[in-house]
Input
Amino acid sequence: MKKKIIGISICLLFITSGLITVAGSAAAEWWPMTGHDAAYTGSVDSDVPDTPYLFLGEILGEIGGGIHGPIAVVDGNIYASVSEDQGSFDKARVLCADGITAEVIWDYYFFGNSDASAVTYYDGNLYVSGDDQLDSSHTQERLICFDAETGDVQWKEDLDDLGTPVIEGDRIYLALDNKIECYNMLGTHLWTFATTDNIYTLPSVADGRVYFVESTYADATIHCISTAGADIWSYPVSERIVNTPTIADGKVYVVGTQNLYCLDAVGSGGTTTELWKKTSIDYYSGPAAVSGDQVVFGNGRYLTSLNANTGSLMWTYDSGHINRKFRIQPTIANDKILTGYNTGYKMIVLNLAGTLLWDFPLDHSIQGDVTMPPVAANGRCYLLTSKDFIYGFFDHFDIPPTV
Output
């Protein structure tokens, strides 16, 4: 049962989708997958509220159940992969909810004490991997395709691990343990690219190439392969990397535990060129977002912006405390940057010069914290917290008079 939020200090304005008009929302720009796009840029052509009107505050699933990854927002609906507390275990649940009211339109429960990936929307369907029911007492990891409007299962394909689907050019890419798997849109397996070490990142796809990182605790190798699964180049580094590469303007940006690397995306002779490197990175830094000439990433207590071409420092934003660290990929939405930090439990919105515009604090004991990137889509801004609270913000709304 869906629960209403209680005990928060800001007035919630609950209104139905039939009574609201978004000002200034021209062509819709939605958020279909983790990182916004297959290149994992974290950048979207959508406005973000200048003055935050909080129109939504609900719970997706059960309090404390947890979330499996960032949400997708497409055609006015929210798609999410969450866990629900079943007492002795958590059950994974994929759902579609109305983007104004958070009323659940359809859902799908995985079996028993289950896990699932984040969701990906593509061409009218929703894709997710999870522990699906095999028989009365066993599960099987599966990639599942749903009709995004109805929730009807279109097909299922057995896997041997779980991974968030990345879709580009009618191909589905999954990083599973120590390999990249590729499927067509009907779930037919096309090829496998195996690695020696585990892959902790998602694959990123751009310009007919797939980028990913295999890593140990001491070193890593950044890979580029073709969309047919052929090796193109690899670039070894002496540090652990668990962040997904970001691809933009012919460059690969990878945030490690010590450095941020900017590499030539094309490469030559089985390797590639390091264009520049930012040193002294916090061990728990998150992935970079790229838009225009800015690379923005969390570097410990500082949100940091670098020039995308040279690596020179543009600005930093200080969270104000050594334990308030930026560990998620920022979201760049037109002229604003959305992110959040862990201790202190707050979502923040900055302009492109790094000046704070507004923030939204959380009560950690009730609402959890910001562990996933805020999402901007078609003039709205959404935040899903670690305890399944979903918040939505408009810049402006018009409520027609009652007739």
